[in-house]
């Protein structure tokens, strides 16, 4: 009679389980970073919560080394909890939604100088119009823009 549980299967099970849980605990961080960069919002994460729960169950069924329901739930329940923590992180640290209905008063007749701001009168932009590139400013120094260098 041979034992069903050997040292090799025990170590294989533990290494896989620890590696999978380690990757799973990165989920809130990835969700928060995605919300901080503006790819998704916390509202979108909350809207697709049902899809995420189904995905957590599918992923836990695939990656768990055992085919039992208990082992699958050991992986799925923390994934669901970590998804909720990720939503909280996205709400706290994510970008605020931008309002696209803001009208900026830009006059197309006013020139734009090298700093990206518009000049109201021609006096501040006079010295900038005859320069062709940034290299001209670097060689002559910033005083050459105002006629002192």
Secondary-structure blueprint:
Layout: H1 7-24, H2 27-37, H3 42-47, H4 49-63, H5 69-93, H6 122-129, H7 134-140
Can you describe this structure?
The chain is elongated and about 90 Å long. It is 60% helix and 0% strand. Helix 2 (27-37) packs parallel to helix 5 (69-93) and helix 4 packs across helix 5 (69-93). By secondary structure, the chain is mainly alpha-helical. The chain has helices at residues 7-24, 27-37, 42-47, 49-63, 69-93, 122-129, 134-140.
List key phrases describing it.
60% helix, 0% strand, single chain, mainly alpha, elongated, 149 residues
Share of residues in helices: 55-70%
Mean pLDDT over all positions: 76
Provide a count of the helices. Answer: 7
Q: Could you tell me the strand content as a percent range?
A: under 5%
What are the segments in which pLDDT stays under 50 over at least 5 consecutive residues?
128-139
Report the major sheet: none
Q: H/E series, N to C?
A: HHHHHHH
Shape: elongated
Rg estimate, integer Å? 29 Å
Kindly state the number of beta strands: 0
Class inferred from helices and paired strands: mainly alpha
Distance between the termini: 95 Å
């Amino acid at each position: 009679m041979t034992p069903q549980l050997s040292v090799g299967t025990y170590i294989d099970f533990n290494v896989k389980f620890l590696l999978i849980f380690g990757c799973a605990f990165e989920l809130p961080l990835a969700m928060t970073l995605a919300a901080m960069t503006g790819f998704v919002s916390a509202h979108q994460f909350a809207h697709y919560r049902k899809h995420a729960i189904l995905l957590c169950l599918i992923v836990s069924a695939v990656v768990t080394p055992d085919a039992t329901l208990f082992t699958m739930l050991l992986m799925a329940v923390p994934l669901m909890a970590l998804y909720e923590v990720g939503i909280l992180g996205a709400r706290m640290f994510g970008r605020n939604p931008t309002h696209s209905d803001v009208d900026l008063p830009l006059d197309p007749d006013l020139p734009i100088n090298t700093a990206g701001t518009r000049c109201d009168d021609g006096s501040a932009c006079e010295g900038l119009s005859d320069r062709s590139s940034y290299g001209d400013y670097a060689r002559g120094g910033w005083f050459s823009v105002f006629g002192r260098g």
